Amino acid sequence: MALVTDTLQRRDGRKGRGSASRNRARNGGPRIGSHIFLLILVIYFITPLWWLTVASTKDTAGLFGGSGGPLWFDDEFHFFSNLQGLFERQDGIYWRWLGNSFLYAISGGVGATILAVLAGYGFAKYNFRGRAAFFGILLGAVMVPLTALVIPTFVLLSSVGLVNTIWAVILPSLLSPFGVYLMRVFAQEAVPDELLDAARIDGAGEIRTFFQIALPLLRPAIVTVLLLSVVGTWNNFFLPLAVLSDPLLLPVTVGLNGWQALSNAGSGGEALWNLITTGAFISIIPLIIAFLSLQKYWQGGLSLGSLK
Amino acid sequence: MKANFLASAGIVAATAVALTGCSAGSDSGGSSEAASCTNTIVNADAPQVTVWAWYPAFDEVVDQFNNTNDDVQICWTNAGQGNDEYTKFSTSIESGSGAPDVIQLESEVLSSFTIRDSLVDLTEFGADDVEADYAEGAWEDASSGDAVYAIPVDGGPMGMLYRQDLFDAAGIEVPTTWEEFEAAARKLKESGDGAVIGDFPTNGRAFNQALFAQAGSVPFEYDSASPQEIGINVNDDGAKKVLEYWDGLVKDGLVATDDAFTADYNTKLVDGSYAVYLAAAWGPGYLQGLSDADPDAVWRAAPLPQWDAANPVQVNWGGSTFAVTEQAKDKELAAKVAMGIFGNEEGMNLGVDKGALFPSYAPVLDSAAFADKEYEFFGGQQINKDVFLEAAAGYEGATFSPFQNYAYDQLTEQLYAMVQGEKDAGQALDDLQASLEQYATEQGFTVK
């Protein structure tokens, strides 16, 4: 999203802002200031990640009273014994949760992306009756947070008997109004009408035009929407919390939350803090990999947007 | 490139469909309850009773039960701890299906569920016959009037865990009354090594309530026989006396006011910021889970300080039970399971040894082995004999409201306002009384 708006803004703002920033760059001072500001931001954003990395190498006693303090390693290295704990605890249910998260994120993310591409392209390139009205409704839907829809969703799913099945998580995740909005904005900019007209004149049908002309141009936006919806489903917490009760169906977010409740419980509780931190650490690794490996598609978007 | 991209997206989508198809298939294969048993069923021919519970090491207890019972088998699911489980139970009460046959509930929430007619009165299935097998206070907590809605499993009689090393360094004797506790708190603060005697968490909920009860506060009168009537006296003299005392300690900076059960609180429990942990009998297990290895800390246990040393009053913090739900298919069989899981020495001993439970089951509670148990964490001290057995024996039970969760939330709100200096102790409790009376009336109760 940031990419798209960035490219758009850059185009509009070039005239106005360019000269001002060039002036500022000359006398060096503000640049040091901005670097310090960025450095502070980096520290601000990296610290929790660093904490998690360090915490995943500690046992529970180390987490609360370790020699290294919260932001440095202890003398003892417990990452592998924690990992072993994840395999042993409730017969390795953590890995089942991780698998569920993958299932929900990938099916929800891919499905949401496909729908968003189709709908966004339709909105951008076809004139049909009620387009403005439908797009208005869509914009309204963007404003409604998913969390607010959880209870109505629960009631709906309950009446069709889908509560406590995987569909209760996947079906609602398939809808991404924001993804549609993003695709529409991007398709409008990146797919010139002239190009489509040329394809039509050359005899390509609408379907062929879409797959062979429009889709390649839309790739950066597709990756963006895919990444956003995968991450959104992966991190979704409230929806699975509300609609699932079978521990074998939970995604990793809700599962770990259950362990935290267990660790906080006085009577009949169990301290699982080391498993929680290690589990959380492992659960973010796939996201990091996804971001890094899809990065080139994002960067591709930058140059693609500036072609016109 | 484009073809690749589409192809891989297609594969991902296909895998997703394959995966979903597969798990949906396995769900529809058997009855959904049988599919979600966490344990293995030993005797497949015997009828099964579904159980929700979150006790530690409960898998071993279930296996023990299933191996020793031919005529009934437990199908166990961990549906989450505390509120997570209660939410799911509530949902299944609303929808009329999905509840287990037997469910672990904390004593304090029992009346929140009896008022919704979701629990079975166990007296018709022989609960009266086993009453003598359970600690008196715990049994009282699980009963309402003549009805018995649950079988007690574990309790939380309160004591005081303290750092002997910090006390010695400051030259403090172990306090036995709250007066001595305050003196010790001053002395510790004056010794100036930064530690305070303890914490008064505003989100202590049952902990705060237990402290009030020690001075004779009886916050609620409620009997499930007349479910629409409730007596509310959260601002009685006992509660005010206790809260004024703690307000004084807070104002003088003698105790901390950190929220309980946060990472910060856990750290301070083990790093010597607090010299005393006012705890229930499950507290040692909690503490040990946080800090198994700190060689410098010397933890010991002592009885909870008293208001009147001549007339000690014992209080309880936490504890859970097994109840039978109205949705149970075979209620008699379910009742048998509820009474049987921990109602034998082998099962209860597993809970005590592996799960650090403080048993309500008398044959284990009163056994010499339990009394003589030495705790390495406390330097070999027999903490049950020294502290908790007496506390358990003296506990007479309490009555909880059918909206206990709301009452605790309101209590937390008022206590927070008090420690922020917005109001004094008496005002905080009066406001609590007013808000609870209003809430009860709005909910359709007749306030006595």
Automatic annotation (TrEMBL), chain A:
One of its GO terms (biological process) is transmembrane transport. The keyword Metal-binding does not apply. One of its GO terms (cellular component) is plasma membrane. PROSITE patterns: ABC_TM1. InterPro entries: MetI-like, MetI-like_sf. Keywords: Cell membrane, Membrane, Transmembrane, Transmembrane helix, Transport. It comes from Arthrobacter pityocampae. This is ABC transporter permease.
